Amino acid sequence: MSIAQDATASATPTTGRGIIRGAAIYFRLLMRGRTSGRGSRQTCPAGNHPTVSHRVTPPPLDLGEGRRVRSTTVLCVQRNGAMVMAADGQVTLGSTVMKHTARKIRRLYNDKVLAGFAGSTADAFALFTRFEAKLEQYGGNLGRSAVELAKEWRTDKLLRQLQALLIVADGKQMFLLSGDGDVIEPDPIGNGTIATIGSGGSFALAAATALMENTELTAREIVDRSMKIAADICIYSNQSIVIEEIKAS
Question: Which domains can be identified in the chain, with CATH numbers?
């Protein structure tokens, strides 16, 4: 064996191990970047090493790249036989206020049921149409209709894509519905019941709970004051408030 061949033979194992070790390190870096968290993205500039950007958490109700709707406060309060629902009028697309006087509450089933939504308007109205059909089918039984809509919303391949939250109420009870199959009837608070959805819902819930437990205000007065408090705090809600009321039959 020549000196050149001997040198080549002796260098090959070391060189091979170095290549394998380098590939293993690169692979670990690459996989760490892919599994570092939801929403993270990799950027691969010129060079031999991948870099991973900081984790980014998308806001709620993400409608796709650059189209995010983050608005709405909907509040429903039941007290002393009155069911009152209110919603603000602001519609926010990204960082822009697109509308100040949107109407997010609808009367259904011959004005016997109130329905409010947070999320995509087109999706919400499609769900309202489905829900009104359920009310007709089950003779105005709010609980049965809510369960059947949630079941269909959860299992239907097309309805699953609809992005909205609903509050539905008649004169006696209220339910919160979501596309995850949730049908939630809120617990009583004091001598009434409260439900909220939307970006300002937590603020409205806190205000309404305090007023319910410490005052003798009517349901309409509680809703009016709570919505104004929420609008002062939540940047995605405004003072253009629509209030609807129905009485227990």
Answer: 3-52 (no CATH), 73-247 (3.60.20.10)
